[in-house]
UniProtKB/TrEMBL annotation:
Protein name listed in UniProt: Heat shock protein 70
Keyword terms of this UniProt record: ATP-binding, Nucleotide-binding
Family affiliation: Belongs to the heat shock protein 70 family.
Pfam families the record matches: HSP70
GO terms assigned for molecular function: ATP binding; ATP-dependent protein folding chaperone
Source species of the chain: Candidula unifasciata
Length: 205
């Protein structure tokens, strides 16, 4: 979850933020908007969402989606999302309906410190999980691009290691952060020499 507009910001205000896709060939995204200061979206007040479809298929991380958040003097939030490549966009108006009362806001602020430590541990765990998953896909993509420069046995060993950890990851997404760290270290021990060898060959040529 990304913090776009912080509590106490003077109105009116307009803020832009860039997002991208999380899977290969993703053609649609859903941008959910929440109000609150808790670390996890589920613990905040859901205001609404913006749907954007028609995105050109591409590897994850390639599409550039610009989302504009504009709040007027009356506290009405306008959210626009646009894909830079296809120029397709969408507009959603989120009113203050369903927003928490002053007492609710006060209670939410008090809860921030209570849950801060727990949420920080969870955040660190998810960061390591995402780091491991990203490393797996980066290695697989790197090897595919340089397929003809990798020895068959090295390519097979790296791919098998990546697939093995990926299968483990799919069944252990709630594992402690230490498990993700250990898997990442073990995988790098196998894949890093192959990648370093390829980078060295590219530099020499």
């Amino acid at each position: 979850m990304n913090v776009i507009i912080r509590r106490g910001t003077a109105l009116p205000i307009k803020v832009s933020s860039n997002f991208t896709t999380s899977t290969d060939n993703q053609t649609a995204v859903t941008i959910q908007v929440f109000e609150g200061e808790r670390a996890w979206a589920k613990d905040n007040n859901f205001l609404g969402q913006v749907e954007l479809s028609g995105i050109d298929p591409a590897p994850k991380g390639i599409p550039q989606i610009t989302v504009n958040f504009q709040v007027d003097y009356n506290g009405i939030l306008y959210v626009t999302a646009q894909d830079k490549n296809s120029a397709k966009g969408n507009l959603t108006v989120l009113t203050n309906k369903g927003r928490p009362t002053a007492d609710d806001i006060h209670r939410m602020i008090l809860e921030i410190d209570v849950f801060k430590m727990v949420e920080e541990k969870q955040r660190q765990r998810l960061l390591l999980m995402n780091k491991l998953e990203t490393y797996i896909f980066d290695v697989k993509r790197f090897i595919e691009i340089h397929d003809d420069q990798v020895r068959v046995e090295d390519r097979t060993r790296a791919k098998k290691a990546c697939e093995k950890v990926l299968i483990w990851l799919e069944s252990n997404r709630h594992a402690p952060k230490e498990d993700f760290q250990q898997k990442l270290v073990s995988l790098k021990a196998i894949c890093s020499p192959v990648i370093s060898q390829l980078i060295g060959c590219s530099s020499s040529s």
